Every structure is written in structure tokens, then in C-alpha cells.
């Protein structure tokens, strides 16, 4: 009886395999794995995808001995645990940034710094852990997160435009202004004339960039008949509850409002709940648009017209920007395109 033939072990993927799959040179892959300097965003995205598809794993020990780096990056989110876990955008960002780092054989450590004590603990960790750099999100001015990290002396890149610190802090952001402008044009085209805005906290892009661009676009709209105008701006904290509270305030002051732009999808959903409880239909009586295209936007009723952020592209750009800063001290500012996604909440029969 013939002996069973043993299967030949699968060959371990190489840099050459990754390069062929991505359609780039092996040198480009090597530069990507060693911090991403002189690698375009398009090539970075292609290499990230190729590494995931081929299953390539770099020799971490050899690379770390060569570079003198730990291979660890901290993702610091300046929110308390309850807020972090209830916001699907944080989940998307953490997953995508983690995958983009893993493609470069780097490890991510998640830190929540949602109060003064947590911010101090995060600072101590960053001083003592030997991380190569930090990605920051939702920085609260009162916690001085940027100043703390810069005092530690490690590179950092922020998710979103850091209000007033754009010349001092590297960042990767969705095109907040363009997204808000497109939403304004869409609502006006759908007949909106008495329009309200629910903005985010004032120190965040959704609290100043998005409402500012939206209001400018409404003010420059050219239509026949009644001139569209923004009748009210309320600020929320990106939660469903804050969107509901802001919508109640808007209806008390402006019961004839016929459209709403919320700076994120969760506040838009809270506003829709209040409108429906008041016997108003969406979109029949009030058009509602959000921002993010987060989980549930397409499936909850009514489905939500929104501005889609490409979280995967943002994550790749964040890791690329951090690599450039770690490798060569290059501080970059990157704006990622967005797309208007039209659904039921602004589509009248």
C-alpha cells in the first residue's frame, strides 16, 4: 500500500508578491513598511490592500533592530468609555487604523482620555512606554491633549482639523466644507427654504467647519421664489439624545422649519425621532440630512441622506502621515474627499 503523500507547505508571501499584487515596485513596498516616506496615498492604499490579500507578514524583529523603533502606535481618543463605545464612528476608525498599522507590522494601543485623570494617565503611558507616535481623536480643549503629547516629544497626527492648531498639529480630515456644501445644495434643490442646523461641539469640525460651510452655501444659493435661509443653529454633542434636545428647541422657536442638517448621523436620528413624535413626517414635512454615513444610516427608517466619510482611506492616510513624521519629521495635512449619499430622508414623492 502506497504511503500517503504529504502536502507541500504553502510558500510564505514575500515583498515581491505584495509588489506584484499592488502593481508597484518592491522599493515602494519596502519604503511603505519602513514608515511610508515618499510613498503616495494611492500606492499606500494599494500596498495595504495587497498585504491583506496575500497574507504577508514582515520580519518584525529584524526591522525593529534595524530602525530602533518599538513598532507600537498609541490611538488616543479623548472621550469617556460610554461615549466611545456608543459611537460607531470610533469603532470604524479603530478597526481601520488597526488594520492599516498591522499591514506595516505595527501594533496599536488604544487609550481613552475622557477626563483629566485619564488624560494624565495617558500622558504618563506615552512618556514611559516607548511608543513611536500617536493618533489622536476628539481632543477636548480642557484636557490639553495636543500639548501633553507634544511635551512628551513623540510624533502625532489628529483625526480631523484641530481648531486653531492647524499650523502646529498634523491632521487627516474628511472634506468637511465640501460635504456640507453639497448637502446645502441638495436640500435647496429639494425645496428647503426654512432650514435649521444641529452642529457638534464648537471645538470640533462638525461644530465649526461643517455649519460654517453649510450656512455660506445656503446664503449663496440662487432660486426662484422664497429665498432659502438658515433660521436656527443649535449645538449638540454628537449623541442621539443631544440631537433630540436640539430639535425640540428648534421646533419651539421655528415651528415652520422644513429642513434640517445635522453634523452627524446620530444627531440626525435623534431629530427624526422628535419630528415623528410631533406628528411630522420625514421627508414629507421636514427634510433631514446627516454626516458620516455611519452604521444604520442605510437601514433605519427612514434611510438617511448623509455625507459619506471614507474611514478606510482616512486610516491609511493617518498611518502614512504618522510614518512620514516618525521617519523624517514631516508634518502633513491631508483632506480626504467625501460623497453625498441621497436616501429616503430627503426624497419627496
From TrEMBL:
CDD domains (UniProt xref): HTH_LacI, PBP1_LacI_sugar_binding-like
Chain spans, region Disordered: 1-20
Alphabetized Pfam families for the sequence: LacI, Peripla_BP_3
Swiss-Prot/TrEMBL keywords: DNA-binding, Transcription, Transcription regulation
Coiled-coil boundaries: none
Transmembrane intervals: none
Alphabetical list of InterPro entries matching this protein: HTH_LacI (IPR000843), LacI/GalR-like_sensor (IPR046335), Lambda_DNA-bd_dom_sf (IPR010982), Peripla_BP_I (IPR028082)
Domain of life: Bacteria
Name of the protein: LacI family transcriptional regulator
Amino acid at each position: 500500500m502506497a504511503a500517503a503523500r504529504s502536502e507541500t507547505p504553502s510558500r510564505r508571501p514575500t515583498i515581491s508578491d505584495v509588489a506584484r499584487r499592488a502593481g508597484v515596485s518592491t522599493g515602494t513596498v519596502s519604503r511603505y513598511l519602513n514608515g511610508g516616506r515618499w510613498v503616495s496615498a494611492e500606492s499606500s492604499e494599494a500596498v495595504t490592500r495587497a498585504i491583506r490579500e496575500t497574507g504577508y507578514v514582515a520580519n518584525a524583529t529584524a526591522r525593529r533592530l534595524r530602525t530602533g523603533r518599538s513598532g507600537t502606535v498609541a490611538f488616543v481618543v479623548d472621550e469617556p468609555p460610554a461615549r466611545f463605545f456608543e459611537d460607531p464612528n470610533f469603532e470604524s476608525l479603530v478597526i481601520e487604523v488597526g488594520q492599516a498599522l498591522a499591514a506595516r507590522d505595527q501594533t496599536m494601543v488604544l487609550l481613552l482620555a475622557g477626563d483629566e485623570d485619564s488624560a494624565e494617565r495617558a500622558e504618563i503611558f506615552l512618556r514611559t512606554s516607548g511608543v513611536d507616535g500617536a493618533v489622536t481623536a476628539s481632543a477636548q480643549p480642557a484636557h490639553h491633549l495636543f500639548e501633553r503629547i507634544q511635551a512628551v516629544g513623540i510624533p502625532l497626527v489628529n483625526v480631523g482639523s484641530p481648531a486653531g492648531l492647524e499650523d502646529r498639529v498634523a491632521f487627516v480630515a474628511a472634506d468637511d466644507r465640501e460635504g456640507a456644501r453639497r448637502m446645502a445644495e441638495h436640500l435647496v434643490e429639494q425645496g428647503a427654504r426654512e432650514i435649521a442646523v444641529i452642529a457638534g461641539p464648537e471645538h470640533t469640525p462638525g461644530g465649526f467647519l461643517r455649519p460654517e460651510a453649510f450656512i455660506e452655501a445656503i446664503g449663496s444659493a440662487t432660486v426662484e421664489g422664497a429665498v432659502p435661509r438658515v433660521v436656527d443653529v443649535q449645538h449638540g454633542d454628537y449623541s442621539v439624545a443631544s440631537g433630540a434636545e436640539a430639535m425640540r428647541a428648534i421646533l419651539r422657536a421655528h415651528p415652520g422649519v422644513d429642513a434640517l442638517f445635522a453634523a452627524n448621523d446620530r444627531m440626525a436620528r435623534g431629530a427624526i425621532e422628535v419630528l415623528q413624535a410631533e406628528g411630522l413626517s420625514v421627508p414629507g414635512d421636514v427634510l433631514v440630512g446627516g454626516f458620516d454615513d455611519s452604521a444604520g444610516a442605510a437601514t433605519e427608517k427612514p434611510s438617511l441622506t448623509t455625507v459619506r466619510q471614507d474611514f478606510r482611506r482616512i486610516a491609511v492616510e493617518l498611518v502614512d502621515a504618522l510614518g512620514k513624521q516618525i521617519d523624517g519629521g514631516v508634518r502633513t495635512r491631508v483632506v480626504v474627499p467625501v460623497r453625498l449619499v441621497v436616501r429616503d430622508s430627503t426624497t419627496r414623492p
